[in-house]
Design a protein that fits this description.
By secondary structure, this protein is mainly beta. It has a ten-stranded antiparallel sheet with strand order 4-3-2-1-10-9-8-7-6-5. α1 runs antiparallel to α2. It is globular and about 45 Å long. The structure holds 1,3-dihydroxypropan-2-yl dodecanoate. The site of 1,3-dihydroxypropan-2-yl dodecanoate (VLZ) has 18 residues, from α2, β3, β4 and β9. Cytosolic CRABPs may regulate the access of retinoic acid to the nuclear retinoic acid receptors. Keywords: Retinol-binding, Vitamin A.
Length: 135
Amino acid sequence: MPVDFSGKWVLETNDKFEEYLKVLNVDFATRKIAISLSQTKVVCQDGDKFDFKTLSTFRNYELAFTVDVEFDEHTKGLDNRHVKSLVKWEGDKLVCTQKGEKANRGWKHWIEGNKLYLELTCEDVVCLQVFSRKE
Ligand code: VLZ
């Protein structure tokens, strides 16, 4: 059975999220709000087609993409940059590289047991988010 990320996932732990936002030059006040938020990921997967919605009471962020198809991403409401993004499968991990102004930028998603993991990387900072299944 291939992996299926679909579902609603709620954030449980969020290690180094503030450092990640800081390296993206997100301002102090926004960072303080952002780290206090509960985040919910709503994922719809149809084969290699994905829709990721990150929902919070402050801001939402939506990303739709197809694996192996490069696309323009505007990180609106996050650091507001434009990057060229490409998501690939590495085994059962979804691996995104975000080419742009910031070096070594990207993320990885994977599932282990009933948890969804997200590793967010920029330069030398790695944030690890762990979500548990809501529905
Ligand atoms: O996630 O790129 O799941 O795009 C934080 C929203 C969203 C809260 C972080 C407000 C999304 C923050 C990171 C205000 C500064 C991301 C991808 C993988 C989907």
